[in-house]
Amino acid sequence: MKNLMKFSAAALAAFNLISVAAANGAVLGDSGYSLEGVETPAVSAPASAAQEQAAPELDLFSYFGYGVAPRASELQMEQGFNKGLADTVFSINLDTIKNAYLKPAVAFTTGAGTKVHVSGSKASNCPDGGNSCADKDKFFLVLTTSRNESYFVRGTEIINWGIFMSGSKTVTIDGEKFVVKIKANASTPENSMLEIKGPRGMALNTSLKSVGDGVAAKGVDVKLAKNYKLAYGNEIVQGPQGARFTDKTLVLLIPFPVVDATSYFIFKTSDIKPAGVTFPSFEAGYGFKLNGSQFDIYKL
Fold this sequence. Notes:
mainly beta
């Protein structure tokens, strides 16, 4: 099973801090998630120049593929509004699953009893706020509490691989410090291990595959020409001051189980019109409608 999370190796760099809005403060629409996330400060020393020169390129999550965004094409009236219920193959109120992927079963608990869910996601831009970077620089581990606070940890900053890379980040939740690391398995990337250590020892020790499986399990089944898992949530952007959610929303369709596909598909909800659109490079025999939060897929 494959999933949304992808990280890869890069030079260690410092994180900047963004304040988390209180659970009863700024939220993402009706979802209850804090609009501001926290990107945690760096605690590990930079690699030496000799190590940086000697380190081979490691892309831990090329195994999982990278997301693509098909272009929308608006449909003619007879292909959109005139389609009836008999043509509909999938229908859902997206508000019922908004940001659900942020709370998979993979989790740990603080000493104060706060449950912290571990998921992964991809920012829509690069660390400098632009778009001229590799996909591997856009991936984040996301720690989301039962109070709907989210902490962002850039994946490329926490990889540990032999003598070449040594990274970690410290996240403070309920006044407790949790150190986050990935121990890379270059030959079988999905078996790389995520470690989170807190004041009482190991809080979480699990494979990246299990994290990905947990994210996928929160998706909704969609059957078109292929089978997919559908997820819906707010866009993540990053910049010099860290990472945060925006009020823009995205629909993701993940081939499931991923055996012969190398990508998942990202759709901006602003591109999906009430009159219907099609995505010629994705499931061309189907139309897609979004009216408010009601999302429908139908045969053309």
